[in-house]
Amino acid sequence: MEAQSRLSSADPAGTNLSDTLTISNKPFSVKLTDKLFSWWYKTKQPFSDKQTKTWACKNRVLVEEILAVEYVEKTAETKNGDIEMVSVNATAFRIHIIKRAPKHIWRTKSVEIYCSSSAQCALWVDSIRSLLDKYTNRPKSLLVFINPYGGRKKARKVFDEKVASIFDLAGITSHVIITERANHAKDYIMSRDLSRYDGIVCVGGDGMFAELLNGILWQYNSSLGIDLHDSTALLKRPDIRIGVIPAGSTDTVAYCTSGINDAITSALHIVVGDSMAIDVCSVRHGYSGQLLRFCVSMLAYGFYGDVLRDSETFRWMGPNRYNYSGFRTFLKNKSYQADISYLPSQALQTDHHPLQDGSRCYTGCSICKSASLLDLNGSIDYDGSISPALPDDNVDALSSLTASLTNVSLVSRQISTLSNVSPDSWTTVSGKYIGINALTISCRCATVPEGVSPACHLGDGSADLVMVHEASRLDYFRHLLRIQAKTSSQFDFNFVKVVRAKAFKVRVPSAVDPIASSAAQTASSFQRLDEPRNLMPVALSTWNCDGEIIEEPNIDVRVHCQLVKLFARGIEESYTKLDQCTSTCISCAEET
């Protein structure tokens, strides 16, 4: 007797489809709801002369993690003896889903399910597709930039062999551009209308990502008439998301936003439409206020700046040039005189999370969720009320946050600029530093699994400012070793100071801008440091800004809370399996 699919009438607005279907020649109970697709098999078989053993297979997958569903085409022989594919009146369908593996890796899995009739098959396929159509956050059209020269020069191969087929499976149209020079992607973005794309994807390393990020922020804000060289301007977050397919030598952005530098995993995060916003730093000339660059990972003066500058001589060595230049720079053990003024996070709100709490940033981080509403780019009045200028994607969070607003101190809170912050809120220190490092993300990578600053959050509106004072070569070597260690802190040295800051500025005593004037200083949004007092010639380093050199040592830096959106969800702290079967399950197809 032909089996019939059963639709529940208990909830007419929801989907509740169930039936007994065939998988790998075995009868499975299959069920589809608005949230879950599940299939399970259970039977008793002889185990010995005196007992039987229950063999079971259970699988459940969230509907949001279904990539696609398609009919299984039949093969038919033509009159000429050729084999052709026929999909008319198909009685089987294939569902493509995400399967998690250890170490935050995602893979695809496909399951073929056979029905008793074509009508029954069509009902299942149409029902699944209808549910998938509700996920409007999934991209349909992507602009893809491939950097064939970065990292290990495998970006094009990575996209062609690992990513393109996944995008095709999900029905995503990709417009692919192979970059031919530095800033090719940025120049393209600046001169094009991006409204027809749902996202921009970079296939390459962190440098390629930084180029896209700078291009998108410049293009979007300029199109709104915002003068980016005006330090008092309120920057706007672009609607378009950025996807990162790691193919570089470090891939710290991929590590920090998904937990692994795996191209397939990153492609799947893009396909399912994951979305999260991360902090971005604006780096300005210390005296003119001119915007130099946007920074999203690490901004470093001293050691890391010297490594980058020295490595430019050895580009022919590929990624190994960083290790070689790092060794050369370490032996020199240089330190640099500087005055640093920073605005601690607690100067703007008393409920900030202290750096010492050691909290990590994971998927659904409550600290970052709160910061998305209580940030310098937001629109919170002095009386604690929230204006309608709140971003649309945060409106739903208002009800959950209202209760906690009474615990938030909004003292000296100027929203569009920092000019109204009391000068007493700033802290100024001076000395000789091996390194001055500001991190807006933890900067995880393969060699530093916990990151340079493990407790740094992706979207809390602040940066971890690490000041490494002058020290012996041995002590600094111990500090570097601890950066790679998981059991001890690299900050537990008396020559290392780390603070969580909303903004900071650096002045090198001998680097005086010849055109600097009191009028130029007044025009800036920051409370300027006094003119350098020591005019004795001193050694200068350069800034390493996301792998790009900034020669100007005097800079003003401000953290813009969640200024750009990515196709990511953050690192999943722990994955609780949904009733998964073993790897030998008869329904499991070979992973791709």
List its traits.
592 residues; PH-domain like; Rossmann fold; Tumour Suppressor Smad4; 3 domains; 24 strands; disordered C terminus
What topology emerges from the helices and strands here?
Elements (H helix, E strand, L loop, with lengths): L5 E2 L8 E8 L2 E8 L2 E11 L5 E11 L3 E6 L2 E4 L5 E4 L5 E10 L3 E10 L3 H16 L7 E6 L8 H15 L3 E6 L5 H7 L8 E6 L1 H18 L17 E6 L5 H7 L4 H9 L4 E10 L5 E5 L2 E5 H9 L8 H13 L3 E9 L21 H6 L26 H8 L21 E13 L23 E7 L3 H12 L11 E12 L10 H5 L20 E3 L2 E3 L4 E12 L26
Parallel strand pairs: 11-12, 11-13, 13-14, 14-24
Antiparallel strand pairs: 1-2, 2-3, 3-4, 4-5, 6-9, 7-8, 9-10, 15-16, 15-24, 17-19, 17-22, 18-19, 18-21, 19-20, 20-21, 21-24, 22-23
Helix pairs in contact: 2-6, 3-4, 7-8
